[in-house]
Write a structure and sequence with these properties.
The complex is a heterodimer of chains A (135) and B (135).
Chain A lengths: L1 H13 L4 H19 L3 H5 L8 H5 L14 H4 L10 H5 L11 H4 L3 H16 L10
Chain B lengths: L5 E9 L5 H18 L2 E17 L2 E13 L1 H13 L3 E8 L1 H31 L1 H5 L1
Antiparallel strand pairs in B: 1-3, 1-4, 2-3
Helix pairs in contact in B: 1-2
Classes of the chains: A mainly alpha (135), B alpha+beta (135).
């Protein structure tokens, strides 16, 4: 890739007419790039995302650590009511700056996250939780 | 059209710098306001002094009071208006709770029925097990 860039530089320096042969060479370089990195790049990343594709792990990507499977706290502990008054419970799902922590980080299931967000917003309105923490 | 009786929770914050008897008076006036508006007060709970998550009218803490009430929505609107007018009340929130209670009762019922079913299935399984052994 670097060689081709040099080539382009040299050709343009030598003559403008040489730009014509350089132009077809340029598209071939980006085309070869996704082919070269494609299977390695996304293939290596994707198994990390869902956290458990056996095929992806077999490829032997750079990430080999085992990701613990996240589970919904409310489903596991059978917490039925997510109430705005329960600051301690809600506080676990609020980041330092007062933001609601996304599901992908906490592992809370969709129906519970929906209730949780509603409860957190109610708690914010009555000054039990901050809208934005002071910095 | 007859107005539906609905269950609500009204949480409000009284300013913290009032003397004891003054806060008592505020809480009782809010309660009488509710009854004159056409709301039946089920329970009044003082949640005590708490630090606010953010400043409200230049106050850093506040006295939280929780009202559990029942009444039509129009009466609640009237109560909210009076809370807004009441000077020592610095913040309030009203939340409808009857639907949530209904949902919780439903969940509880389902869970109870499951608990009841489980011992039954265990018994039948135990009853079935010795049968092939004897045959």
């Amino acid at each position: 890739m670097a060689d081709e860039e040099k080539k382009e530089g040299t050709t343009t320096n030598e003559a403008p007419a040489a730009a014509a042969p350089a132009a077809p060479a340029a598209p071939s370089a980006p085309a070869s790039r996704p082919y070269g990195r494609g299977p390695g790049g996304p293939g290596g990343r994707r198994p990390g995302g869902p956290g458990g594709r056996p095929g992806g792990r077999g490829e032997g990507g750079p990430r080999k650590f085992f990701r613990r499977k996240k589970v919904c706290k409310f489903c596991v502990e059978k917490i039925d009511s997510i109430n705005y008054k329960d600051v301690r419970l809600l506080g676990q799902f609020v980041a330092e700056r007062g933001k609601i922590v996304p599901r992908r980080l906490t592992g809370v299931c969709t129906p519970h996250q929906r209730r949780l967000t509603a409860a957190i917003k109610q708690a914010r309105n009555i000054a039990l939780l901050p809208f934005a923490a002071r910095y | 059209m007859p107005q539906q009786q609905r269950a609500y929770e009204v949480m409000y914050i009284v300013r913290p710098d009032l003397p004891e008897e003054e806060t008592d008076r505020v809480i009782s006036t809010v309660e009488s306001n509710a009854t004159t508006a056409g709301i039946t007060v089920k329970n009044v709970e003082r949640m005590g002094k708490r630090r606010l998550a953010y400043k409200v009218r230049k106050f850093q803490d506040g006295l939280y009071v929780l009202l559990t009430v029942e009444g039509p929505g129009s009466a609640l609107a009237e109560l909210e208006r009076r809370l807004r007018v009441t000077e020592p009340v610095i913040k309030y929130i009203s939340v409808r709770i009857d639907e949530e209670q209904k949902r919780l009762a439903k969940v509880k019922k389902i869970r109870d029925s499951k608990v009841r079913q489980r011992p039954q299935t265990a018994e039948t399984a135990a009853g079935n097990e010795p049968a092939p052994a004897t045959a």
